[in-house]
Amino acid sequence: MRMKLLSCLWVFSALLSPAFAEEPPAFQEKAVTLETVKMLRNGGYVIYMRHGNTDTSRPDRVPKVDLNDCSTQRPLTEEGRKVAAQVGEAIRKLKIPVGEVHSSPMCRAKESAQAAFGNGITIDNNLMYTSNLTDEEKNPIIQQTRALLSKPAPEGSNRVVVAHAPNLMDLMGYFPKLEATVAIFRPGGEKGFEYLGSIPPAQWQQFLK
After folding, report:
1. Among 80, 103, 144, 154, which is most exposed with the fewest C-beta within 10 angstroms?
2. Which backbone phi and psi does 162 adopt, to 5 degrees?
3. How much is the pLDDT for 155?
4. What confidence score (pLDDT) does residue 13 get?
């Protein structure tokens, strides 16, 4: 009897071990529809934009970059500025109202935000690129990103966040592969946020037809 009991306990503990735990489902990127675009016209959502195209042959200077010196950071290219500007122009043509615009302090994000939305942006150090940071350094950035996606947007406008792909990956397991991709969220306050879908930069044209 004792041996049977020990055997049962071993099987039970083994099933609870990480080796037997189910893998969480992989994040599923969704396409934004025209209906989503129409909802954005009423305001109340969050538009998260990954910065525009960059020169990957010039990586960030690690372990630390100088936020006041763009030469220490992976730079935005002229194509990246053009693409960011096109995204901003599409948003305006579609009559999607934009209120507050928050940007990472990295030059590629700031320049993308300015190209897309003009100069009235808020630079937030807690939207910093997380890829080269420790878990402790990432924590306030993850918390701020969550807060900006969850906090209700001002009535009649949408909140914009211009930052980086790794930040969303750290927050929710989503890495937007294409630069200048926009992800749409419905803020839920204390309940968090809901991901509605993504728009790669080339897709805006189909909504403008």
Report:
1. 154
2. -115, 115
3. 87
4. 45
Amino acid letter, residue 110: K
Q: What is the pTM of this model?
A: 0.88
User: Residue written as tokens 């590629």?
Assistant: 108
- DSSP run (H or E) holding 96: none
* pLDDT of res. 12: 43
Rounded-to-integer distance, Cα 153 and Cα 37, Å: 16
Which DSSP string corresponds to 107-137?
HHHHHHHHHHH-S--EE-GGG---TTS-HHH
Does pLDDT of 22 surpass 90?
no
Can you say whether the dihedral through the CA atoms of 83, 53, 140, 191 is positive or negative?
positive
The helix (run of H) or strand (run of E) holding residue 185 is: strand 182-187
Question: How many CB atoms are located within 10 Å of the residue 144 CB?
Answer: 20
Ordered structural domains, the chain, with CATH: 42-208 (3.40.50.1240)
3-state secondary structure of 192: coil
| DSSP 3-state of 175 | coil
Question: What is the pairing mode between strands 122-123 and 193-199?
Answer: unpaired
Instruction: HSE, CB side, 13 Å, CA atoms: give it for residue 108.
Output: 30
What is the Cα–Cα distance from 93 to 197, expressed in whole angstroms?
20
pLDDT in tens, 45-70: 999 999 999 999 999 998 889 999 99
How many C-beta atoms lie closer than 10 Å to residue 148's C-beta?
23
